[in-house]
Amino acid sequence: MALAACDLLASYVRFAGCALKDLRIGAIRCRPPAPRDLRSAGKLRSMVLEVALIDVTPGQEAEFAAAYRTAVTELIGVEGCRSIRMTQGIETPSRFVLLVEWDSVEAHEQNFRATDRFGRWRAAIGPFFSGPPHVEHFTDVPASE
């Protein structure tokens, strides 16, 4: 489920009230997608995918998910953030994967990590970590040349 920026507030209210199971299939779009003709013409810079592997203290999964639903507002509206999605492991329910699409690594580092928003984000969800998250950035591999 992708959400347009103009519907973000109403969608966030629905998103925040959903069950944890719904978090696994939903995403919050930080801004409307580019017109299809620009994407297909290759005129837009490709995005960067931030992947954060987060291990939560077993038994605190529901509390972590609730903290995430509150803290995600710190990411919404950050310049360069395209979408946000949190998933939870099926085989390992205490393992979560955060997927955030950014315009660039610099957008993530400068517009979020270097701001007070990141401090508030980490203060909300960090107490549930069983160890430091493993975070990396990825780019798409084209299916054809």
Automatic annotation (TrEMBL):
InterPro entries in alphabetical order: ABM_dom, Dimeric_a/b-barrel
Domain of life: Bacteria
Residues of the ABM domain: 48-138
Pfam families assigned to the protein according to its UniProt record, in alphabetical order: ABM (PF03992)
Name of this chain's protein: ABM domain-containing protein
Organism of origin: Cryptosporangium minutisporangium
